[in-house]
Amino acid sequence: MGAFLLVHGDREYVRRPGEELQTDLGVLDVPEDVEHGDELETHLGEPFTVRELRGPDLFEHFERTGAPMMPRDAGLVMGHTGAGGGDRVLDAGTGTGVLAAHLARAGADVTTYETDPEFAEVARENMELGGVADRVDVRAGDVTEHLDELVAEGPFDVLTLDTGDSPDVVERAPELLTAGGFVAVYSPFVESVRETVEAGRGGLTDIRTFETIQRRMDVGDRGTRPSTAGVGHTGYLTFARKE
């Protein structure tokens, strides 16, 4: 069973059934049969509401091994590829595992590669935390070294990449994907976008790149305007499709 949020005011803690929470508000033992919506009390009588972990909560509470994919980028990947129930997804550059978890929560079966074995182990723990470990196969290794065997394992419906060697994988995308399957590549730098697009022109169609920018709005008594805080730009997303 996955974990739950324990909420008290603006405080949020993540615990699994059977685990203990210790705070200045007291000690709370999470029962094995806990359910979404339950109210639990610490030994000091402080109430906590049990809330089911949702997609945005994964971004906030997964253990991080680097900068996780932002919700805006994960949403674009899912929206432009249509990844969902019954799809097989090959993902590379697992990192924290936010994208893999979102895909699995939508019903896809995900095979994901992470080059750092320690990061891969953290990602496996995050999949357990998110309740999607049965849908996400986290593999430690460089995906480019396993392409031949992955072609044999395929075909995949969607290919998602967040690695420096994404163009090398994109070149093999026509072999990895089923007919009509999609590729989504996240690039932090515009230079890698050109390499990705050129790699895709050998066998993919409908190649498009978007810069992801989001502005938060501040709503106050004096009026409403875009926030001056934070960074609006996150990166570049390139999408393509196999005919």
TrEMBL record:
UniProt xrefs under InterPro entries: SAM-dependent_MTases_sf, TRM61_C, tRNA_MeTrfase_Gcd14
Signal peptide as annotated in the record: none
One term of GO molecular function: methyltransferase activity
Segments forming a coiled coil: none
Keyword Protein biosynthesis attached: no
Example GO BP: methylation
PROSITE patterns noted in UniProt: SAM_TRM61
Residues of the tRNA (adenine(58)-N(1))-methyltransferase catalytic subunit TRM61 C-terminal domain: 85-219
SUPFAM superfamilies hit by this protein: S-adenosyl-L-methionine-dependent methyltransferases
Keyword Flavoprotein: no
Protein origin, superkingdom: Archaea
Pfam families for this protein: GCD14 (PF08704)
Keywords, ordered alphabetically: Methyltransferase, S-adenosyl-L-methionine, Transferase, tRNA processing
Protein name stated in the entry: Methyltransferase domain-containing protein
